[in-house]
Design brief:
The protein is built from two helices and 25 strands. It is mainly beta. The strands form six sheets. A five-stranded mixed β-sheet has the order 14-18-17-16-15, with no helix packed on it. It has a four-stranded antiparallel β-sheet with strand order 1-25-24-23. The longest helix has 15 residues. The chain is globular and about 45 Å long. About 5% of the residues have low confidence.
């Protein structure tokens, strides 16, 4: 399909002007790529306060923190033995929520100091699992599992207080979603202030809404289109950005008001993309992180964050 970059990137610029002062938006330019530590093996990326970006390391559980303006950063959360970092999100209270992949766990860190705030066992020990991504709403953090047809819910208390382990619950998913062989649920986003969740099923290329109250899923009709290899999601207004990792593409889906249907209105790419997995938005720019799955020597390979340019 045609790649209609300019209207989408103009939309992002308009969104940026709504939240940034003109002097801040027009200050120093933002680099096209931001280098991560060699061998970092990233997967998740999230934006935080100001122009901050956070990236998790799959094999070590570490979290790198940097600034999109200038591109400098360093490891904030050190490696933790026995932890992985897959999808990550930063909430309004400046906490980093991390999905723990095959550990079946989730973690929460202070986005300013990197301090360990909480850890949760989401999937029962001994169960095959892959806790893949997370979204935080005013009421809870929701984690996807690529191998099990359910979400994990960490409810937030008064003033978004983190609960104890006993409050964690499993939300079985029913309705239109049917798990298939392979990797199923991946990215997750929240709509309507958290009253509706949106998820992508990587192996079928389908999108679904999820009721966070009942777990009932409804397919978002895309016509003849699919978003196979769908990974991280980013929802800005009615535009859903779907990272299609192995294809080095970001599909832009314009959702209907009811969220029952959508149409792919653009496919964004960049020559610097190398198996991007997740995406974040800050200061009017999209940032995708290169996971570079399949690279011959990931322990020493170069990894980057890529700003999706308007060229």
């Amino acid at each position: 399909m045609p790649v209609r970059r300019r209207p989408i990137l103009l939309l992002l610029a308009a969104l940026a002007l709504a939240v940034l002062a003109p002097s801040a938006a027009a200050a120093r330019p933002f680099p096209d790529t931001i280098r991560l530590p060699d061998g970092f093996q990233p997967e998740g990326i999230a934006s935080g306060r100001g122009t901050s970006l956070f990236v998790g390391s799959i094999p070590t559980g570490a979290v790198w923190a940097g600034d999109a303006r200038g591109g400098r950063g360093a490891v904030l959360v050190p490696p933790h033995t026995g932890r992985n970092a897959i999808g990550i999100k930063v909430d309004r209270r400046n906490r980093i929520f991390v999905a723990g992949g095959p550990t079946g766990q989730g973690y929460v860190y202070d986005a300013r100091t990197g301090a360990d705030l909480a850890s949760y066992q989401l999937a029962p020990a001994g169960v095959a699992t892959f806790v893949n991504d997370v979204v935080v709403t005013p009421k809870a953090a929701y984690f996807t599992d690529s191998l099990n047809q359910q979400l994990y819910v960490v409810p937030l208390g008064h003033h978004s207080r983190l609960p104890g382990q006993g409050a964690v619950r499993t939300l079985p998913l029913t309705g239109d979603l049917v798990f298939q062989t392979g990797f199923n649920l991946n990215g997750i986003a929240a709509a309507r202030g958290g009253r509706v969740l949106v998820v992508v099923q990587s192996n079928t290329g389908k999108l679904f809404t999820v009721s966070p109250r009942t777990g009932v899923t409804d397919e978002i009709e895309l016509g003849a289109a699919t978003v196979t290899n769908g990974d991280g999601l980013l929802l800005l207004g009615r535009h859903l950005f779907v990272v299609r990792n192995q294809l080095n593409l970001i599909a832009v889906v314009k959702l209907s008001h009811s969220l029952s249907s959508g149409r792919v209105v653009a496919e964004l790419t960049d020559p610097d993309l190398d198996v991007p997995t997740t995406i974040a938005f800050t200061a009017g720019h999209l940032y995708a992180v290169n996971a570079r799955f399949g690279t011959p020597d990931p322990a020493t390979a170069r990894y980057d964050i890529v700003r999706i340019d308007d060229d």
